[in-house]
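Side project, low priority. Logging it here so it doesn't get lost.
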Amino acid sequence: VRLVESGGGLVQAGDSLRLSCVGSDFDFSVYNMAWFRQAPGKGREIVAIISRNESATYYTDSVKGRFTISRDNPTNTVFLQMNKLQPDDTGIYYCARRTVANTVQFQTSPTSYFYWGQGTQVTVSS
């Protein structure tokens, strides 16, 4: 299993970024996919989750209405469109996958995820 994120960068408050995560060496279409982030000095927190067929999504409260998670199963890619970025959005963003496929219930704890990408840095200046 391999997950590779890209798309991070340094932006100003109010700007947008689109993160991508490409999965390989597994059947991407049968797994829910998640985005987490880790701010400096803080623990890893859930940002968003998308079901395997895009029928359901989850967002943490602080990003609702600003971030959108989506996926393209034919290209094994999950996206995170981030609009109206704020300095509090600064951190390393990771995509993650659980070991269990074809699940309905979303898991928001990072301890429920086994596979992680290397992360991509997002820095939002005020």
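Brief comment: The mean pLDDT is 97.
Revisit when time allows.
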